[in-house]
Each structure stands twice: as structure tokens, then as C-alpha cells.
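ingest -> validate -> predict -> emit
validate: passed (alphabet ok, no gaps, 279 aa)
predict: started
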Amino acid sequence: MPDQDKVYQDVYLKGRVVRHGTRSSEERYQAVAQVLQRYRRPFTVLDIGANQGYFSFRIAHEFDAICVMIEKQAALLENCRKNESNRVVLLQHAISAGELMRLSHTEHFDVVLALNVIHHFRLRWRTAAHAILDLGDAAIIESPPNNDTGSRGKWIRRPINRFLESMPHKVIAETERRRDRPIMSKMRLYEREGIRERSSVPVSRAAHGISLDTFDLLGGVYPERNVLLDTWLVQGFHGEVTACEQQALKWIAVDEIENYRFPPADLPILDLIRRNARA
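emit:
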């Protein structure tokens, strides 16, 4: 296979690997899965620099999770279309450290994946690292080791690794950088508060992983939809519920949903309502 046809990450479509990359993904995924298996409820994942989307597609396939991928390469959109998953979101954008920091002020995830991306922020790597740690309750970070001569950012590799080592963490895996390069790379887990129980959540955010504003601002291209049904889980209110456009209103229990007919576009929302009721 010509060099230009090689991919870095394994390509995962509908439950199986259809193409192997120069970097093995299986062992690294198993380390991530060990962390995710502790969740006993739906959870969200932010995958920064998703590459071919292997981790997000597989997580969405094997767990009750919504995965938001940030990746600039256009090929990932085609992978989204082929996977046909309603549990992944693609922001097709070359995100900057400043944008990542602003994102940490408006969005929050259960788990953040930052696998070999911090060094790509170059002089702003420290800003990016702090944003990554702030974006989730848990962050899994991988960075090229000091002795890797084949990756970018050689001159900032040591300060990045010193910073990562200085923060409280647990090494969850140590894997080869490439199939043909016996250099080991550490995957580190950083946890702020451990696994938190969610007492409430906007249903629309659970469905899409992020707000519509973030989707628009950061180049959201998948899911490919013309209409967004913005739905919220409301825990309390004052006054009387009133139909502003002459709709019929009726209170029903979650277990009564099956007794009513709904348009097809409502079905994913109803599924999320059921899952939130069980969480």
C-alpha cells in the first residue's frame, strides 16, 4: 500500500475494524473501556483530535454513550455516514487552544479523550492542557514520549510530559507508538471528582452531546439534520402549563409512553426520556 494511502488509526465501521492503521488501537481502547465500564448510566465523551473516529465509534457502539468528536480532516464525515450512528457528533474544525478554553466554560463531559493531541497546540499547549482537564470529570491523555523521534513538537515534548507527570494521575496503559516502532507511550487518567450521578440533564443535550450553539460555532457537520427538536427535562416550575399554539396537552407517566403514537422524529427523544428515568 502506498504511503499516501496509510492511515494512523484503525477504521471502525458498524462493530468491526475494516482497515488497520499504523498505530494499533485495540490495546489502547481496552484501557479506555476499563474506565468507561464503571459508568452505570448514560454518559458523554469528548474526543479531541478524533482522527478516523475509532474510539468514538466503538464507544458509541458498545456503551450507552454520546460521543462528540473534534477533527478537521474531511474523511471522518464519510466514516460517520457509513457508521450511521445517532450517538456520535462531528465538529469538523481545527480547534485552537483558545477555543478549547472557551469550550470548557460552556460545555462539560463525563470523559475527555486527548490522545496524542496536546503537542499539536505548540506554544499554547499549556492552555490546551488546562482546558482538557477542565472539560470533563475524567480525562484520558496520551502524549508522545521524550524519546520518540517521529512525532511533531520535539522541542515541547519534555515540558509537556513534565507537566502531565506533575498532575495527580494514574497510568492506565503503556503501548507501542507504532506497529513498526518499539517506543512506549503512556496513557494517563486524570479524575477531578470521580463518577458523578446526574440528577437532571437537558434531554436535547443528552441527544446531541453539546448545545446547538456549540455545534454551529465549531463546524458541526454530523448528524446531518435540517430540524433540531430542542427538548428539555424540567424538574420543577411555577404556574400552569399553557399551549401557546393550540396544541393538546396531557400529562402521562414514562411507562405510559407506549400507549400513544408519536411521529418518527420523536422516537429518539422518547428513548432518551426512558433512559433518563432509569438512570
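The chain is about 30% helix and 20% strand.
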